[in-house]
Structure formats: structure tokens, C-alpha cells
Fold:
Amino acid sequence: MGGSPSLPEVALSTDRVVLITGGNTGIGYETAKWIAMRGARVIIACRSEERAKSAIERIQREFKEEKSKGAVGLCSSENLTLEFMALDLSSLKSVESFISTFKAKEPKLHVLLCNAGIALHPQEYTEDGFEIMFQVNYLGHFLLVSKLLPLMLSSDEDCRLVFVSSVAHRTASFDLDKAQGKHHTKENFKRLLYYGNSKIFQIMQMYCLNRRLKNTNVAVNSIHPGVVNTELDRNFLDVNYARVLLRLSKIIHVTKTPFEGAKTLITAAVNPQFKDTRDAYFVNMKLRQPNRLARNQQKQEALWKYSIDCLKDFLKEEDLEFLGKV
Structure:
């Protein structure tokens, strides 16, 4: 398991349930693999059953290969416990269906990794009417978290929620009246700005949640994985400046492999050192501080109210009561 010595040798209980969105590729794949290899039960939530099952088969093969090499720190079982569950964050009905299925199957949830995302997507709106990066990166996860938090609160100690954000949050602005970008035409839609907005919203949600989850067993953090060579760039290869910057970053070795990018997410998810850490923004496995806008409490709370209003058709009275209490 290349590079794993730089990660803590953490043995994870087979009873520990980890849910990761977008766990079939990129840093999500590497995170799912590493955590499963340490013993936890990992559920990969993504759109494609075919791709998820292919990823799970590959993980099982790589696990056996590492065992045959005598790699240390692996769990003792012959096969890893990995499952696929269908989730399309661009459809709130799909998120709702996933939540119902998950709750019917799982009595506990210890780690929720909000990893799935898209970057620099052209202007497009989901079936729910929201700008697609806003919904996939942020709002869909907001609904997922809102409905699964009660399960985490009733699980064991040291439950963790981690948002995969980005340094792109530093490019964001804050104007909720223009949050969906509908005042732009397709030609002048600012893809980097709206990607950055979706990523700063995740960090702001982290702060809102931690205020409400104070003195509970659930801690919320966020990360920047680095510039990772993954499929995330498939949405912006038509953007000349982005394509050039990506190519240049590869040439000068600024980009990371998916495993190198996953290290920070894995650290936030399972490293015992950070058991009681909250409101952290991890970069290169270390604590850093997001920008000032992300830390603005008044704007955080305005976003919280805006998000709940966006989800009014999907949040029931008991959900709203719960969100008001936590």
C-alpha cells in the first residue's frame, strides 16, 4: 500500500460504519480502501453501481496483494467489508431515497465523509432548480447530513463528519441573492467563482453544525486535499486557463496522486490524535485556517437559513425541530 507508512497505524473496529460519498474513484477510492483495510465497514455511495462494484473488486484484489507482501497494519479478515449504495447528489429525490434505504439497513453511523463533488462545471441546473455545483457539492450533502445526524448522535463515541472542501473557497464571494447564478448567461457564468462558493459553503456549514453539536459525540471538520490528479477535472477541460494551469501543475509536480490527496481525508476521519478536534480545516494533514469570509458567523447563519429554505420540500417538521435543537 504505497505511502501508507506516513499514515497512523490505526486498527478500526469491524463494528465501525463509515459512509463516503463518491468513494468509487479518486481520493474517495483511496480513502475507502485504506479505511476498509484497517478493519471498518465501508459504504460507498455514488451514482454508478457498475463503477462502484468494479472499485470494490479492485480494492479486494489490492488488499490480497498487500497481504501477500506482508504489509503491516492490515485487518486480519480474508475479505474486506465494502458495500455500494446508490446516491445521486444532483437529485434531492435520490438523496431522500438513499437516506430511507440507509436508515432501514444501518442502526449506526460513525463516520460520514462528504467527498463527492464536481469542479468548474458549465452553467447547468438540476431537476430541483439549483445550480449544479451548489447542489452536488453542498446542498445535497446538507440534506444528507441533516437526515443522518440523529443516527450519528445515537451511535458510539468519536463520530466524525468531514467535508472535502478546497483552497478554491478563497475565490468565493457571498451574495445569497445570486447564489444560483441565474443572473448570468452561459457565456459569462463564472465557473471558478461558483465552484469556490460551493466549497466555502461547506466550511461555513461546518461551523454552524459545530455550534449546534457542542458537547455531543459528533465532531465536524473540513479539508483541502490539494490539487489531485483525479477525474474531477473532466468538467473543465474545455476552459483554456484551467487546462493550462492543470497541465503546468502536473509538469512541476504540484499535483498529488489520489492516495497522496486521500491522506488528509483519512487523517481527519480516523486519526485518534484528532478525536476531539472541531472546526478544523486540514491541509496536508495539518490544521490550517480558512479565509475570513468562511469564518464570518453572521454569514454562516444566513447560509444555514437559506439552505433550510432551499430544502423546505424535503425537511419535515421533526427535521426542522431537530435542526433547531442541535
User: Anything to note?
Assistant: The chain has one domain: 11-325. Confidence is low (pLDDT under 50) at residues 247-253. The chain has nine helices and eight strands. The longest helix spans residues 132-153.
